[in-house]
Design a protein that fits this description.
The complex is a heterodimer of chains A (about 290) and B (about 425). Chain A is about 70% helix and about 0% strand. Chain A is mainly alpha-helical and about 290 residues long. Chain B has two domains: about 30-145 and about 300-350, 3-Layer(aba) Sandwich (D-Maltodextrin-Binding Protein, domain 2), CATH 3.40.190; about 145-295 and about 355-415, D-Maltodextrin-Binding Protein, domain 2 (3-Layer(aba) Sandwich), CATH 3.40.190.10.
């Protein structure tokens, strides 16, 4: 597209950028900056904010609740990340083969990604139902008495993880598929001539060559996992007895149910710092296992 | 070019001036009314009320802003903060106290006086609930109570006597056991262990969440521990009430309506549902107590926004909505909660409705009413207590441990 020269060019570019920049300033940057200021205040929306210094941060770091929800969030991440990585990689490997109707399967596996969390969560509540749920009926056929899942304090979080992996695997499988397609077939041919088994080919060719993608998937999904919210809110509402309360759920409750905006802002900033630190650590560690072939 | 613009500006100014002259503007005053309790079931009723009011008051037009209960109070709080709140709005009792404490509401007494209205037609206890620090900041619009619903057929099969006014917790357990014995899938009672049931049940045992002047929590008092023990025993010890796993995600109303539950503690707002769904004979009774009776009293009221410019008109609308015979009758016909009026003809009409037969119990319950224990950090308190109640319900903690932990956490988190 021709967009003019000199000053006119600048005006045109500015005009095209303005809506995005304005939206970013108005709905992201300014609120983020404000939430930082708010985290040092006590504010209930109706009455003017009061400066309280570091009180909110002290209170939250000193509360049992904060450490409990951090532990729950951690449990979610530890269960979710491996399950999601393995299942999406397996899906990608499956979709990388040539068989009739492979494109239909691609769409089918991607469908949960497009499904709204509200609908998905409600369906999973029934799939995981203690008496009438699909999972427990299937388990019953092989002689296992299934747990009460979302009503059981030990099984509620694994239940949420199952639903989350179902929803996200299709998305990450697509990214992995792209990486798999990008591997030069000559590597495999060379390995076959040397007599390498399927496992060795996977372990020593596929895994190293898709490691930049694995790294990307790991980093983004860890960040997303710290913000797990919708499925918890709908499937368990943080229950039973707080077993699935996670940090985002707390931020939402404090901000929009208890109207403690200052405290909720402080929680958000603590979450930000945690995510930042963990991402930096991942960044440093990538040297040990990620291979960029250039 | 410039001349054209000037001409255009002149025309605009002229138009603005013309429109603001009385001749050209509508004589009607439009007021906005925020509400949540109509929902989809009673939306036609609310529309009928609006139409009847506008017919009688041609100078006022009411604009309804209806929102579902789940979103309503969040929306309203934001609107009040942003200066875009409706002129008048519906509030439940808990939020009425919060809004009054935060100085968002207008004092109604001078407004009523100016409009020539009086507060004498209201039920006294309902009216008192909407006073804050001695001032009338709201009028009651409707109220509801919680009762003992029972399945007469199951009682007959189990050869148990129907619940009566003298019943106590012990009778509940005895009858519950007999009904539970009828089948693996048949349960004696559903009450649910949660905050709202808890503050009422402890009142039935003479307990309370706070000391008398509300300066200290008394959540783990012996009376309260005993009350929670009763609630938990029904589930774990006797299993006359289903556990979470036995409920398996089924709604409590649905379970009762499917004929599998002998007794259900729920509100009179369930009348319409039960009337439609129950294929057996059922009735209600005043809830059994222990040391004394105590019954839930919930009320929705109407208030006027402090910064509204149309308070006079808003006052006329909410007063009509709350207490006129016309709106009360519309409310009764729809079975939409109970109108808060002392008018005997309205009350008699309510009692004459069927089912259930014993509608008198709704008014008898008023003698034992407990209002929600409202404090500024109400929903936070409810959450802390709820979490520990669930631990006791699931047998993870004893009632004593659970309430000790609740007490400790409340003292740490909440300023009374």
């Amino acid at each position: 597209m021709y967009i003019g020269k000199g000053r006119k060019r600048k005006v045109t570019i500015t005009a095209f950028l303005a809506p995005t920049v304005a939206g970013f300033l108005l709905f992201s940057l300014i609120p983020i900056a404000r939430s930082f200021c708010l985290s040092f205040t006590s504010w209930d929306i109706l009455q003017p904010a009061e400066w309280v210094g570091l009180e909110n941060y002290k209170a939250l770091l000193g509360s049992e609740e904060f450490w409990r929800v951090m532990k729950n969030t951690g449990e979610y991440i530890v269960l979710y990340i491996p399950l999601m990585l393995i299942s999406s990689l397996a899906l990608a490997a499956l979709l990388n083969r040539k068989f009739a109707g492979v494109d239909v399967y691609k769409v089918l596996f991607f469908l949960p990604v497009l499904t709204s969390w509200v609908a998905g969560s409600l369906i999973w509540r029934w799939i995981l139902n203690h008496k009438y749920g699909l999972v427990n009926i299937l388990l019953g056929h092989i002689g296992i008495a299934g747990p009460a899942w979302l009503d059981d304090k030990y099984w509620a979080m694994p239940g949420v993880v199952l639903a989350s992996a179902w929803k996200d695997a299709g998305f990450f499988a697509l990214i992995f598929l792209g990486a798999l397609k990008g591997i030069n077939q000559e590597y495999y041919e060379a390995a076959e001539i040397d007599g390498a088994s399927a496992w060795r080919k996977f372990r020593h060719i596929t895994l190293p060559l898709i490691s930049p993608t694995t790294f990307f998937v790991a980093v983004t999904s860890v960040i997303n996992s710290f913000q797990v919210f919708a499925q918890v809110q709908i499937m368990t509402y943080g229950g039973p007895a707080g077993a699935t309360q996670v940090i985002m759920e707390r931020i939402y409750k404090y901000a929009f149910q208890f109207f403690k905006m200052g405290y909720a802002s402080a929680l958000s900033w603590v979450l930000f710092v945690i995510v930042l630190v963990i991402t930096l650590i991942q960044w440093r560690l990538q040297k040990r296992w990620v291979f960029y072939d250039s | 070019m410039r001349r054209k613009r000037l001409a255009l500006a002149a025309v605009c100014v002229a138009l603005v001036v013309l429109c603001s002259m009385p001749v050209f503007s509508a004589k009607k005053v439009t007021i906005t009314y925020g509400n949540f309790s109509a929902g989809s079931d009673n939306e036609p009723t609310l529309n009928a009320m609006k139409a009847a009011f506008e017919k009688a008051n041609p100078d006022i037009e009411v604009k309804l802003q209806s929102t579902g209960f789940g979103e309503y109070f969040r929306l309203l709080q934001t609107q009040v903060a942003g200066g875009t709140a409706p002129d008048c709005y519906e509030l439940n009792y808990e939020n009425f106290v919060a809004f009054a404490a935060k100085n968002a509401l207008a004092d109604l007494s001078p407004l009523a006086k100016a409009a020539g209205l009086s507060f004498s037609g209201y039920d006294a206890s309902a009216l008192d609930a909407f006073k804050y620090k001695g001032k009338q900041f709201g009028v009651p619009g409707s109220y509801s109570v919680v009762l003992l619903f029972y399945n007469k057929d199951l009682f007959d099969q189990a050869k148990a006597a129907y619940p009566g006014d003298k019943w106590t917790w012990k009778d509940v357990i005895e009858a519950g056991k007999k009904i539970r014995a009828l089948g693996d899938d048949t349960f004696g009672i559903i009450q649910t262990v949660q905050f709202w049931e808890f503050y009422k049940t402890i009142a039935q045992n003479g307990g309370s969440l706070f000391n008398a002047d509300r300066t200290k929590f008394t959540v783990n008092s012996p009376e309260n521990v005993e009350a929670l023990q009763y609630m938990v025993d029904k589930i774990i010890k006797y299993n006359i009430e289903p556990t979470q796993a036995q409920k398996s995600n089924q709604g409590e109303w649905d379970m009762f309506a499917s004929g599998k539950v002998g007794m259900l503690i729920t509100g009179n707002w369930a009348f319409t549902f039960m009337k439609d769904k129950c294929k057996f004979k059922w009735d209600i009774a005043v809830e059994p107590g222990n040391k004394q009776k105590a019954c839930h009293f919930f009320s929705n009221g109407y208030a006027i926004n402090r910064s509204s410019k149309k308070q006079q008109e808003a006052m006329r609308w909410i007063a009509w909505l709350a207490s006129s015979t016309e709106s009360s009758m519309l409310r009764l016909d729809a079975g939409w909660e109970t109108p808060p009026v002392s008018d005997k003809s309205v009350i008699d009409a309510y009692i004459a409705e069927r089912p259930p037969d014993n509608r008198k119990a709704v008014f008898d319950s008023l003698k034992y009413l407990v209002t929600p224990p409202v404090i500024e950090q109400f929903s936070e308190m409810a959450e802390v207590v709820d979490l520990q109640l669930q631990k006791a319900r699931d047998g993870e903690k004893t009632p004593k441990q659970a309430l000790d932990d609740a007490q400790r956490e409340l003292e740490q988190k909440i300023r009374l």
